[in-house]
Design brief:
Elements (H helix, E strand, L loop, with lengths): L1 H15 L4 E2 H4 E3 L5 E10 L9 H13 L16 E9 L8 E8 L10 E8 L5 E8 L5 E4 L5 E4 L4 E10 L12 E6 L4 H15 L4 E3 L4 E5 L4 H12 L2 E2 L7 E5 L4 E4 L4 E2 L2 E5 L2 E12 L10 E12 L3 E5 L5 H11 L3 H13 L3 E2 L1 E4 L1
Parallel strand pairs: 15-23
Antiparallel strand pairs: 1-14, 2-11, 3-4, 3-6, 4-5, 5-10, 6-7, 7-10, 8-9, 11-13, 12-13, 15-16, 17-22, 18-21, 19-20
Length: about 375
Amino acid sequence: MNRFWMIALMTLLFSSTVNAERIKDLTSVAGVRSNQLVGYGLVVGLDGTGDKTSFTSATFRNMLNNFGVAIPPSMDPSSKNIAAVAVHADLPPFAKPGQVIDVTVSTIGDAKSLRGGSLIMAPLKGADGQIYAIAQGNLVVSGFGVQGSDGSRLSLNVPSVGRIPGGASVERTVPNAFAQGDSLVLNLNYADFTTARRVAEQINSLLGPGMAQAMDATSIRVSAPRNPNQRVSFLSVLENLEVQPAQEVAKVIINSRTGTIIIGQNVRVSPVAITHGGMTVAITEDLNVDQPNALAGGDTVITPRTGIEVDAGSGHMFEFSPGASLQDIVEAVNQVGAAPGDLMAILEALRQAGALKAELIVI
């Protein structure tokens, strides 16, 4: 009997939350964010694929001076085995000194490849100018490039960018307001009034009325304990609550460069009839050689001849009934065999006619 009720309860839970999402996946905690770090350094040990820019030479000279190696001003310390690079990384929230983070290294000058190089100790700074991490290590470069003496070149991927997994050590902690105040704020990843209301209602159903308040379409303020340990446990419970998010706004997104078209599930079309016909224009250029008669005394000339052929395809007409859905639109377009470019024109014409009940976005 107990087993029967357990199975019934599990079935009820799964059936009631089949389309729900966790608050963890819908929101982020205000103030809990990563921070961008950037630095400048040198990559050494390259196999003749470095650069010879002036700032690379100056950086190399300064580095040697710091180690007590004096270079005469008349001597150029440039080398094709060295490259000046920009180093950047993301410092995750709550990162503590001694932890390591991944870094990305990119060439600044005319270095051809960073394959086989090693980054010399480079400080990484935040937007406030403070040093938050120190980067150093051997690069992992996925691309490669070769060049012939005649100027021909072959490359795979991008050899001028590399990664150093765990290549930076955190030196400073970024302060945050997570454990401050009597409340915390949850920010929706995508602003929506309905979803914000549902998140607040779900939290209040667990903690009691008034514990969560939707401030606007993005933020929900939740009363939270001041003790950091209790606040972590409190947030752990909240982020695993499941909420049924609101349906997205009806949108049609068109990428005119790649021909990609995304049609949202809530897109509807008013009653409308569309005719679509294809036309192909072929233009060919031929060169004819005209020679004079043997005794005419003229010159041989080359005359161009242009041929134009127009093939007008048979027109297609299809009709949308009231409240046509996404499936109806796709099926109708597939029946006429419209290409992505034709479909873009059809959607644009529907919008101009006021029949497309969606926001049309062209990127």
